[in-house]
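Margin note from the TA: students keep mixing up input and output lines. Inputs are the sequences; the output is the structure of the whole complex. Example:
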Amino acid sequence: MADPRELYQQVILEHNKKPRNFGKINGCTHQAEGHNPLCGDQLQLTLIVQEGIIEDIQFEGRGCAIDVSSASLMTTAVKGKTVKDTLNLIQGFRALVRGEWNPATHGDLGKLVVFQGVKDLPVRVKCAVLPWATLQSALDGSPIASTE
Amino acid sequence: MTYSVSRIRKDFPLLDRPFHEKPLYYLDSAVSGQMPTSVIERMRQYEMYEHTNVHRGVSTLSQEATDHFEMARTTVAQFLNASSAKEIIWTRGTTEAINLVAQTWGRQNIKQGDAICLTEMEHHANIVPWQMLAQSVGAHLNIIPVDDQGELRLDELSKVLSPQTKILALTHVSNVLGTINPIKKIITAAKQRIPSLTVLVDGAQAVAHLPVDVRDLGADFYTFSGHKLSGPTGIGILYGRKALLDAMPPWHGGGNMILSVTWDKTTYIEAPGKFEAGTPPIAAAIGLGEAIRYLSKLDLQDVHTHEQHLLRRASEGLKKIPGLRILGESADKVSVISFVVDGVHPHDLGTLLDHEGIVIRAGHHCAQPLMDRFQVPAATRASLAYYNNESDVDALIQATQKSVEMFHG
């Protein structure tokens, strides 16, 4: 089994300590709530999407370092992106944490590759995926996402 | 003979297995107690040489199985000091036992406008069945609060109980805080105020640590699960005072619980059979009886001294870690330590400890209202049993220290 310490790299610890885009957008165009009932993690996403582009995105909530840093890095990755590219990125991220990521099909994930180690911790995949599943719900127009 | 933990550990093969290529430190007995080989062997013997069904007529094999099964019931009755084995009902566990009471005694006795009294430190198993009943009949829940030390606010008891209160359902020992509630004192005070009050005690976390005498406590119902007591999963106990059980309607209907069945009417046998429809988990019941026999060979006072020593060692060691806070510091607690660390989520800590071979629980411990009370989403919990030793405790302290340092960097 891989040492989980390799997953808890500086970038994850740092985003956990100082999450980016933490807060709530008043007058958002899209929003969703994500729940991980098994561990009690939860987060709320608010977005402003205009003409197919994510102009702004913020998150609030509580969770473990993997969940919080995943949400933080996700918001920095998708801000300014088109909805279409974002949906592709969601697929790419899901593939990454399941150990199925292939740069040829899923494209470059940039900094998000720090989450690659999650594939060796099956019980923690849900934590990393929660923000992404919630983003998918927000873009699909369904208000609640659950990883169970 | 003096208490020899190294000798006891030989009865538990799991404690000796490698885990992620390291030793395994099992600090999760509040989740499930390990079974000694004698229990596993007893169940194996039943399945290999004695397996059939119970209460099935004339075959000698069935009679033997019935005798072993009923002998186990008697062992449980003696363990709890019940008046009779007829007061002992097999269930799948504590959860099913509480649901049984809520759905039979509860539906019969709790009406619209009545109150059900619980405490803030209950496990979901002693909350949700009552909440479901309350919603269905229009009753309400009253809650005895917990103080910062993790003890029940008994000064609130007279405010929380009202003439409408029909039942007080409370835990003997908190699965999160470790607090041992003064059950006898509480029952005496509560019944003094409301003589008709019925009291159910959730003993899931108590039976592995404390002697239990249901008659001395004055409990009307007492429940526990076999697997918290070094027995198998899938078996649990509902103790009920005979007069209460006799007055209660059955819950599940089916074979094994009837006197006669016609298209017009079914009549039921007496308790405990009335509450045991269908084929029971026979090997598990016999295994639980064996677990009680195993534990009865240990001196409970020695076990207590040993566990309290480990509890102190763990608490003192953990408290030295910066930012670490223990939830539940009652002077009267079992060897269960829940804690939170500033800036370190219990699930991250759980993953790191797991890699060091340390088995603990991280999460809300099926006690979300209690987590809310302490304003934490989750906690890390180490729970120590009679087979744990100082190495287990020291490994926990060191690995926690190392993990926290990584986060605080």
